[in-house]
Amino acid sequence: MHMANELLSPTVAFGCGIIAVGGISFAAGRIRDMADSHLIPLMGVLGAFVFAAQMVNFSLPAIAGTSDHLIGAILLAVLLGPHAALITMTGILVVQCLVFQDGGLLALGANIINMGLLPAYIGYGLWRLMIGQGPLTRGKLLPAAWTAAFIGVCLGSAAVCVEVGLSGRLAIPLAKFSAAMIGIHLVSGAIEGGITCAILIFLYKLYPHLAGTSVNWQEKKMNPRSLVVMICVLAVVTAGSFSWFASPYADGLERVVSAPSTLKPKTELAGKIDTFQNKFTPLPDYNKRDEPSQKRWPNVNFWTSFSGLLGIGLTMFVIRLGAGFITCRQKVKSG
Amino acid sequence: MHHHFIDRYAREDSVIHRLDARTKLLTAIVFSAYVVSIPRYEIAPLVPLVIIPFTWITLGKIPWPFVGKHILICSPFILTLAVFNPLFDHSLQHIVLFGSRYTVPGGFLIAINLLVKYLLGITCLIALSSTTRFDHLLLAMKKFRVPRILILQMYFLYRYLFELIEQGHEILRARQARDVGHLTVARRIRSSSGMVGVLFIRSYESALKVFQAMEARLYDGHLRTVEQLQFTRPDLIAFIFTAGFLFFCYLSNT
Amino acid sequence: MNQSAIIAQNVSFAYTDGTAALNGVDFTIHAGEKIALVGPNGAGKSTLLLALSGFVDFKGQIEIAGLQLNRANIKRIRRQMGIVFQNPDHQLFMPTVEEDVAFGPMNMGLSADEITFTVAATLEQTGTSQLAHKSAHHLSFGEKRRVAIATVLSMQPQILIMDEPSSNLDPRARRNLINLLKSMPQTLLIAGHDMEMLLEICPSTFLIDSGKIVAQGPTEKLFSDKAMMESHGLEVPGILKSRSLTVASL
Predict the structure, then answer these.
(1) Which residues 222-251 of chain B have a CB within 8 Å of chain A?
(2) What percentage of residues in chain A have a pLDDT greater than 90?
(3) Which of B215, B226, B228 to mutate: most C Cβ within 10 Å?
(4) Domain boundaries, chain B
């Protein structure tokens, strides 16, 4: 998911840089007092591990010819807290950029947002939401860790699409790019979720004090709160992404097939104006690509997605009612 | 600790190596920003920019095969991205080549634009990391007010990374030594997860011990160094040259 | 002057799983003394050293250089007492030897000139001046050991505690180390298994087993007590066997 400089326009790169710097200052301020604590060795070692893990590219099972790698931000957020996780991820990304030339120098801001800020904070928020209070059980940990990791990765990839879209540096239509990008990351997000769970279980067994709360491995029952959140999240993602995929691919195919006939050669004057525009417009020009069959991304299939979500929402409501019924009846039976 | 790949040349000596790390870091940033700001259908303005990374690498005495190999390793993604552009952008653009005017599909121009920009950017980064010690880069960042905790994190990350790789090699060797021919893929995978686990435990425990050693020597959260960065005359010359050159390029484009 | 350097009173410590590492340790070490700490593996030697340097949450009292060992005093105590750990790799974490040796003095707030002087003097004392600009990880094990000692000596502590300083050293490096330790004026507490070295350097010994000091006294006498040595998992060192001293129980 490391972005290269060329994907971004200077404005977007700069804007992302500002946001990233803001986030880092905030996080650094929050952990200022902890700089002398034993969090440092853990941050260092985990940083090195996540770094090494990111170097391992795995080819994705569902989509031929693509490979992706782990991000690890959510794992770090669960173990270190979101602030230390952001600092650790930033360290990793900077070292990758400066020492290993992985990811562009100017794209650092964007990369920090996509692979640091968003997954660490939102992933952590989801994690805490799902594990609730009390001792940590296997039933709580597994769904929480998996969902947090999955969402974190997907959010990061969605952010890439937003940044690329705003920059307008690619000729590849945004919808197609997004479909590929987010599609790939749905799969790698699922894998990351699984690996995050496995690692957390391993570490908490070895070093229970890292959990910050007591750990009860015997308890395997999934807690209802986790279940609800997980279903919501999965439903939203599924509904949204499937409906998004349907149209762009059709659009894209349509375009490629009919392209030669819809294309009108530009007059020389129009060509000159185009070149002039290219040179001096600081912001990307959305009207450049004026082929009629292509639709623009944020508006694409909004209603399709929305109706999908509505349908799912209704279904979940019914399920909830049903579950409530069943619990009530069980209570009556045992009580 | 043998960094036999990336940092190989960072501790050598040359005119460039002796420059202040801040100069080099700033040059890399400004250069990258300028490269990225070139619009996507322009190829000509990119060409003279080659001078800067070229000078950097030549004066820094970095072998070109090393640079070339590095570029190849990092390139697959951008190559893919570049290659797809001509499929989508069929607008026709005019370019002037050696005095005559040609009409070229826009996507083709974008592909070349992307590739050239990428080459410029990555060569610049390779030059930076091969002529600057990492701890000096950190010092430069400290001067640029990067938060202390982040500097610390990068310092430890850098240090532990190579140690991790060495320990990983050791563990792999230990497994190899016991491989008499029956190490199936399944067994390899299963033992790998155990190995990673052991690797982690070893690393974490030694990290704790290093931290103890630091605390025993009164470490208080501030990583102080004997080394100091210093601006010297060559830095001024480098700055004037780079800034002047970029400004000249900018002027000749408008 | 015979003031005490280290006083331990009823020091105890148990791990989270319940095993007791230290079980009521009592002793007094006077300034200038060189004491050997011997015992079988698992007796609590390393844990005791960690407790003395403030890395373990122990029960009981420890007084170092007249200061109670607690959170408030720990920094002042660490200026007076240095600890050399068993693994030199854990103590060499700066890019060059010079910077590692300067680490302690820098944290103590010495001026640049004082630091330069102290570093040079310490490197000289440990015979490692020629290694000043080398990266710590390109050194031989013996060199690393000596540099690790230098990193602590540069803080000029009054007391030095060491964990197995001669393990894994080749004969020449070991001899150099013994000569260095013999020449140091500091109070020394050395934990280890190298009985011959301890005989040479330390006039007195504490024998620890199962977290308690079970015997203390003149080194030669203690090491020659076959019954005592063997009942605590140790052996009479070869050099003493030939002298065949028999000692009444202490």
Answers:
(1) none
(2) 19
(3) B226
(4) 4-132+228-252, 145-216
